[in-house]
Every structure is written in structure tokens, then in C-alpha cells.
Amino acid sequence: MPSLIPSAERRARLRAVLRECDSVVVGYSGGVDSVFLAKLCLDELGSDRVLAVTGRSASIASWSKQSAREVAGRFNIPWLEVDTEELSDPRYAANPSNRCYFCKTELWDRLRAVARERGLRTVLDGSNADDVGDHRPGAVAAREHGVRSPLLETGITKREIRGWSREMGLPTWDQPASPCLASRLPYGVAVTPRRLREVEAAEEALREMGFREVRVRHHDPVARIELPAAERSLLLDREASVREAVRAAGFSRVVVDLHGYRRGALNEGLASPELVQLGGVPSGVAGSN
Q1: All domains of the chain in start order, with CATH
Q2: What is the DSSP string of 168-199?
Q3: Count of beta carbons in the 10 Å neighbourhood of residue 143
Q4: What is the DSSP letter of 183?
Q5: How many whole angstroms separate alpha carbon 89 and alpha carbon 104?
Q6: pLDDT tens per residue across span 20-67
């Protein structure tokens, strides 16, 4: 089984890479990777040479912004929010398969400007070794902007980041992934403030009910809920409340994907026999395998 934490040699290598960067602006979403990287930069470089920067837009969920703010305050990480305007870019709003390229181009433009204004030398992101080979058009934008990825450069995996984060006492060590809200829209469906608000409202309501890792995929006007198998019993207990909350967010139909949560599911259609509608079907069907 792979180690839960990196070897002492790779830890030393990562710290050496951070020292090479000299002074840094960290793209800081409030997620597992960026929180870990920002805290390690703070420990290695000191507060006068580190600034964690969070992009603020309708594409970013409120709970991600809250996590970024709270963790920065708790660990005294110098932190700044900047507005990003990716929704004003028609190339992004059209939601092509390389949508992330346009979003990250906007973000890195802003962060490079902050770095110049503050006299900080290097812009960093939290990409890690597990991101290699994934469909990541945003990584192209990072390379074009000279953004460095120390975790990727030193081969640190997500599992190791979680283990090391736990050792450091970071509350994000076991936090579920939380990509931008636009990732809930199938490619080709326009990214609009309304659709983003509907997804956010639905997911926020489900989080308040106790669902920990949930996705509400937006198939206008249908909501497709994805949950890990471990949370299906909670769905059965609260089926009526789930249906009511998601409809209140702006959807007319609510279906549950029996395949559960998995990456890349936004590309799948609604014709699958593995989808069941909440309401009008026996509750046991919604939880079957």
C-alpha cells in the first residue's frame, strides 16, 4: 500500500523547491491541495514572502470561499480575494470542453498582476502527481503563465497530501473535492449565473442535510444527483426533503444516478436506465444497486 505521507527525501525536495521560488503568490481555493501548499509555503518562507489569493466569482461555491477564509485566518496565512470575470468571456460562457483554459487564463492573469504589484517572484498552484494524464486544459493556461506546481514537480500524490495535512493539523485533510460550480453543467450548456445559483442552492441544501460528497448535475430543467454508495441510506431516509429542496432551488425534476458520484459524469446523458426519479417510484429503487 502506498505511504500515507511522502518520504523524508521527497519532503526535503519539496521544501527546497519552495525555497527556489523565493517569494510566492499561491492560487488558493480553500481545498485540500491549495491549503496544504499555502501553509507549507508559510512555514518555509515566512509571512512576508507568501500571499494566498482566492478568485471570487459566481463560479465558486460559497462553502469554498468560506473554507479559504477560515483556514487562512486560523493559520495566519496572508490572504487576499480578487474578483475574476470569466463569466464575461463568451468563450468560457459557451462551456466548451476546454472551458477551464479560459477560466484559469483569467485567474492567472489576475494573480500575476498581484505578484507584480506586491513584488512577489513566483505564482504557484496546487496541482499534484495524481493530476498527470487527466483532462486538464487549465494546466495549459498555467504553463503559459509561468505558474509552478511544486507538488507535481516533486511527485507528491493526493493521498500523501492528505496524510501530511493531517499531520500538520490542517482541517482540510479529509475534505472532499470541490471543483467549480460550472463543472456540474454538461459541456455545451451555457454557463450562466442562474444555472450556477441553482446548482449552488441545491448542493448547499443537501450539505445542510448531512450529505458530505454530493454533486447536483444541471440538465436544465432536471437535476441529477450523484452520491457515494455510503450516503444512499441517508437519501432514502430523507427522500421527500431532498426532492423538495432541489426543486426549491429551481429544478422541475430530480433524478438520482445509481452509479453514484464519479469524475467525468457531466458528459453522460439522461437516457441511462441507471437513473431513477425521486417521487413516483418506490424509495427502495433509489437505493438499489
Answers
A1: 8-174 (3.40.50.620), 192-260 (3.30.70)
A2: HT-TTTTPPP---GGGGSPTTS---HHHHHHH
A3: 11
A4: G
A5: 12
A6: 999 999 999 999 999 999 999 999 999 999 999 999 999 999 999 999
